[in-house]
Protein: Gfo/Idh/MocA family oxidoreductase
Organism: Mucilaginibacter ginsenosidivorax
Amino acid sequence: MSTDRRKFIKHLGASVLLTSATLNSLAAKEENELRILSAEKRVGPNDKIRIATIGMGIMGFADTRAALTVPGVELAACCDLYKGRLDRAKELYGSSLFTTGDHREILARKDIDAVIIATSDNWHSQIAIDAMRSGKAVYSEKPMVHQISQGLAEIKAQQETKMVFQVGSQRVSSIAYKKAKELYEAGAIGKINSIEASFNRQSALGAWQYTIPFDASPQTVDWARFQSNAKLKYDYDSKRFFRWRNYREYGTGVAGDLFVHLLSGIHFITGSKGPERIYSIGDLAYWKDGRNVPDVMSAVIHYGETKEHPAFQVTLRVNFISGEGDHSTTKIVGSEGVMDLMGDDNFSIRKNKMPVATGIGGWDSLSTFTEAQQKALMDDYNKRFSQADQQQPTLPGESYRAPEGYNASNDHFANFFDSIRTGKPVVEDAVFGFRAAAPCLACNDSYFENKVIKWNAEEMKIV
Ligand SMILES: NC(=O)c1ccc[n+]([C@@H]2O[C@H](COP(=O)([O-])OP(=O)(O)OC[C@H]3O[C@@H](n4cnc5c(N)ncnc54)[C@H](O)[C@@H]3O)[C@@H](O)[C@H]2O)c1
């Protein structure tokens, strides 16, 4: 049996188990199975998709693993600026794997169809544009860009080259998010008016103090290339290389790193193109390790009324020293309920609807009036409202959890490769990716410049 066939059967088996156990969305279930079945038809020995991963760090390895769960996908090459990670890639994927420290060598290869870009944020945009212009499909990690000013050029490159391009905010491919969107659109929580979303963490690793290898040095790290697109240049510093998220020169702070997951999910569910006003505040409360970005940040963001949705407010927060422990939530509040999304794969809905009657008595002025007034008012109230109208309706809630072992990244990659094979649109294209990233990057601008940022979501421009 061919490797592809084996992989397919494994994939299908996992899916049947997964879907029959707990999937309570028929639509999502059918779609999931349909995708896998159509993948079987299309994946033959001669139409393998050969990929290369550029940026072989934590996410590069994780993305590669997820990509290779899709039948017919093969790893051809890896690129990284630290030698140890290229050696590790060979340990895992075989000594004949092509490895390089220069992404242009990957792009020059004719045998590579698609690249995964999982570098530090400062390189996403340039490599993505280079890759599309070299005829490669691109899966770019989030945030799509390091600076708002890079977005339109990247969208233009995609539109000109017509290469398949997807941003890596995997929750938009999650079956849980698909189900949540379905229920939201069916009116499960009434008319939306506000959203609170956050990431709370309480650990050194959660606050990006990742392990640095003993052999880190200018001999094993291409430091010059790493910082070549930064305005401010520094002497070699292992912390800046291996913990780049802590420095604005290479990362995008908690806003670009984590708010972007929250806004991607929010835009996906509400169908929004983005907000119109953004304000944020930040503090460096605990992790004073030389970083130049806040470890606690809050943003208030206003979404105006559009044809896709009514006006609503979003508050976002990341807290890296939270006594609440590790916890992430997106709470979408509507006039008749609240949808609480936890992580990428489960959510619950609680419904609360006002009674028809306006209410009288209890915490009210009624008891402050004379007995005669109270009686007259109560008689009048009971005449105007039936007993049923005076009751608060009790509406059943809902909860949904993706099956054990479900991984949204696998589905996000399946969507990406489906698009390469069939031409069907990706789930998270460059316009969606930029519309999610830009307001997050505007949170940084708001914090560093202490001002409200106005954003034109339609045209994707700062006002
Ligand atoms: N989708 C998600 O859930 C998710 C989760 C984690 C990280 N990410 C994203 O993945 C990206 C990588 O994060 P990470 O945690 O893996 O970081 P990391 O530091 O572990 O790995 C980044 C790697 O990129 C390499 N690199 C940097 N510039 C390069 C260049 N010009 N050419 C080739 N290689 C280059 C570095 O050598 C490093 O090994 C980030 O943009 C991050 O936002 C996404």
About this structure: Residues 54-60, 79-82, 85, 103, 118-121, 123, 141-142, 168, 170, 225-226, 244, 257 surround nicotinamide-adenine-dinucleotide (CB under 6 Å).
